[in-house]
Write a structure and sequence with these properties.
The longest helix is centred in the last third of the chain and has 31 residues. The chain is elongated. The chain is about 75% helix and about 0% strand. By secondary structure, it is an all-alpha fold.
């Protein structure tokens, strides 16, 4: 049975848009991927925190933010994998070869920019809440 060809650019796009929910992991490894399920568990955890303890709103979305940042890092790893290594890992029996183009480079720049903004914003807000109690907003 031939293995379905997995596109590296599409996997990187999934990591950018839905990485916090693990969509890229499910695309690459199927529905039983443990890390993908861990990403997906961040959504109910956010709901549980919202309904159970009513902490500061930032703490409610913190599990989803951490999962999203991890998705951005995974997107960078996926996008920066050489085509030969990508084909050996994910497309061994597909019979096709991957060819990266400019769209992948654009997605990598976008992931790096958005990921840096989200990471710096998250770190700044965590330290604001931990050290000042949120007195700066």
């Amino acid at each position: 049975m031939a293995v379905r060809h997995k596109n590296k650019t599409f996997a990187t796009l999934l990591a950018l848009l839905l990485g916090g929910l693990g969509a890229h992991r499910f695309y690459l490894k199927g529905s039983v991927d443990r890390l993908g399920l861990l990403h997906l568990c961040s959504l109910p955890l956010t709901g549980i925190l919202y309904g159970a303890v009513q902490p500061h709103p930032f703490y409610v979305i913190l599990p989803l933010l951490v999962s999203t940042i991890a998705g951005f890092v995974e997107g960078l790893v996926i996008g920066l994998t050489p085509d030969e290594a990508w084909d050996a890992q994910y497309n061994g029996g597909s019979g096709k070869r991957s060819r990266s183009n400019w769209m992948l480079a654009l997605l990598l720049v976008l992931i790096l920019g958005v990921g840096a903004i989200v990471l710096i914003g998250t770190i700044a807000r965590v330290f604001d809440l931990l050290y000042t109690g949120g007195s700066y907003g």
